[in-house]
Amino acid sequence: MALDISVKPASSGSELTTFMKLPWKLYVGDPNWVPPLFFDVNNKLNKKHNPIFDHAQAEYFIAWRGAEPVGRITAQIDDHYAKHWGPGTGQFGFFESVDDPAVARALFGTARDWLKNKGIERMQGPYNFNINDECGLLVDGFDTPPMILMTHNPRYYPRMFDEFGLKKVQDLLAYRMDAVADAPEDVKNYAEMIRKKEGVLIREWNLKDFKNEMARFIEVYNSAWEKNWGSVMLTERELMAHSMELRYLLDPRLAFFAETKNGEVMGVSLTLPNLNEYITQLNGHLYNLLPTMWYPMVVKKKYTSCRVFALGVKAEHRRSGVGAVFYYDTLMAAKRLGYQWGEMSWILESNDAMNRAIRHMGGVVYKTYRIYETAI
User: Fold this and answer.
1) pLDDT digits (tens, 9 = 90+) for 196-227
2) Does the domain spanning 177-370 belong to CATH 3.40.50.2000?
3) Which CATH superfamily is domain 5-172 in?
4) Sign of the CA dihedral running 17, 20, 112, 64
5) How far lies 178's CA from each of 129, 151, 173, 322, 360, in Å?
6) Is 119's pLDDT higher than 90?
7) Across 32-57, average pLDDT
């Protein structure tokens, strides 16, 4: 006789540990899964530590079959999303489940009911916890591992989303680009023309002035992405929480600011070495090493791939063409540093201009992530 499925909040410390460790059970035999780092997941789920909870609330749920954990999900409401896009939308995330539609239905239903009881009218996701974090369900491109700070899931997840009645609301595209080939000649010529015409200065990030560089980054981020679908403003506290991580993740030779002749910041481009090439070997553990010890050790390793993590231009400079200069300079830097290929991700499928530009540069969509929605 099959045991009934129950879904309960993960309220105790041991239950939260069960919530965090569930993927290690579900992804056995998946060579493309990259185990997340325990300390990173713990920090993100810690409501006292993660500054997103200055403006958001969430509940964590575990699905049980008897005494066996078989799935998990979060339900969350972000006040900053509501202020920007209007009230009525809640999110779900951190979804994991065994291949059993009954488990998925129970998880989605529990998240839906929690949101409904909070007065929410529609449920959207997956977000871990909002669009500034890892988000989207992988629906195409299961045959390769994810890039740093991107998601991965089994092939059966999209089916379970569909069966519950969740509908596509937006696709997020990941492009693969060869870092060995030369840029198209017209792209090179256009970038050099814009550099001279607009007086654009491209400079590397100054790690000795990192606090101010991060302030410049958030200035561009909140301007460049403000009107993008689903965007949520980054707060100063959230910025500071990410600062230490980015300080030790980025390679300044792949991180650029664009400035005018007068020193005004026009835009930012941030490309990260694909640390997943190394993290996958750690199985979630850092063996009590401090981030200040292991991040430099990791970054100094030789990587074959990198990810264009953020590329944005402030609203008033959007028509300047500086994006083409970023594309070209990033490609040239990656070639000099010996990278074989790079991922540009993620790009909203509705961002026609960006998609055209990347395809013209030689980028090919090789992974697709999906955001779903359903009325409550």
Assistant:
1) 988 899 999 998 898 889 889 888 888 888 88
2) no
3) Gcn5-related N-acetyltransferase (GNAT) (3.40.630.30)
4) negative
5) 32, 22, 16, 21, 13
6) yes
7) 93
